[in-house]
Specification:
sequence-specific DNA binding, HTH_AraC, about 290 residues, alpha/beta, Arc Repressor Mutant, subunit A, DNA-binding transcription factor activity, about 40% helix, two-stranded parallel ribbon, Double Stranded RNA Binding Domain, transcription, methylated-DNA--[protein]-cysteine S-methyltransferase, about 15% strand, globular
Length: about 290
């Protein structure tokens, strides 16, 4: 098992067992490492301790964040993104496919794709000369299945594999390089007018915070359209960069996510950690009782 696989497995274990509050020894045993070595590895990959990661994995946190975000979508995009998060959405600009492009279904369009390992799991990324057109976790789909979906969406396009051409997207998300001299990271997506409006609204939710489906609908002047908003969010073609993971139910429950509730919690928690200073302190395993 690689270091990446160990950390991914540990994060999944923490998500699934958050209510049990497992200690360091239990988590380390799950990935077959000593507590000391697991702690070091987790800090290196996640930028925080397993204990702090676990603290964020609570339903009450979701409720609290939601309570604080009652006027979230009234805040300007710039003011909402003043933190130090690596996933600065003001480095992301969304360009919708034009009616002519949609009609041509990718004719003379060159699409390059690649699969990359990330702290959150394998990520399939596809780009056009105008920007990112696909990003999705591979938890439930093989590369061939994701390629088939891409071909269905753009049947007349030229699709080739090139991880070197898609690497910049991974660097922008996970290495904090989105604000490079090349300018904002562009998205090149196709959707209905309503879907595009919902996706633009998602970009206004500051990193590390959440909004409800109802709040998104209200921000669009369609307060009774929460279900339609949910459908549009579920159709999001670009994971992470269009942050559908920041939308939860009014009750504070997670709500749906194309890649499953465990992945949604992992993404929320990872993103929350990016605004905190790196924590490289090592917590020793609990001492046994006795003199």
């Amino acid at each position: 098992m690689s270091d990446y696989d160990r950390i991914a497995s540990a994060m999944t274990y923490l998500v699934n067992r958050a209510s049990d509050q497992p200690n360091l020894e239990e988590i380390a045993a799950h990935v077959h490492l000593s507590p000391y070595h697991f702690q070091r590895l987790f800090c290196r990959w996640a930028g925080t301790t397993p204990k702090r990661f676990l603290q964020v994995l609570t339903l009450e946190r979701g409720k609290g964040l939601l309570d604080k975000s009652s006027s979230l979508l009234d805040v300007s995009h710039e003011l909402g993104l003043s933190g130090s998060s690596r996933l600065h959405d003001h480095f992301v600009q969304l360009e919708a496919v034009t009616p002519g492009e949609y009609k041509n279904r990718g004719k003379q369009l060159k699409i390059e794709y690649g699969v990359h390992s990330t702290p959150l799991g394998a990520l399939f990324v596809a780009v056009t000369p105008r920007g990112v057109c696909r990003a999705g976790f591979m938890d439930f789909n093989s590369k061939d299945e994701l390629l088939d979906d891409l071909r269905i969406a753009w049947p007349f396009s030229s699709i080739t594999e090139s991880t070197s051409s898609t690497r910049y997207v991974i660097d922008a998300i996970f290495s904090g390089n989105a604000g490079s001299k090349e300018g904002p990271l562009s998205l090149h997506v196709a959707g209905t007018n309503f879907q595009i409006a919902v996706w633009r609204a998602l970009l206004k939710i500051p990193p590390g915070t959440v909004a409800s489906y109802g709040q998104i609908a209200e921000s669009l002047g369609a307060s009774n359209a929460a279900r339609a908003v949910g459908n549009a969010i579920g159709s999001n073609p670009v994971a992470l960069l269009i942050p559908c993971h920041r939308v939860i139910q009014k009750s504070g429950a997670l709500g749906g996510y194309r890649w499953g509730p465990t992945k949604k919690l992992m993404v929320q928690t990872w993103e929350r950690m990016q605004d905190e200073p790196p924590n490289n302190s090592f917590e020793p395993p609990p001492r046994p009782d006795g003199p």
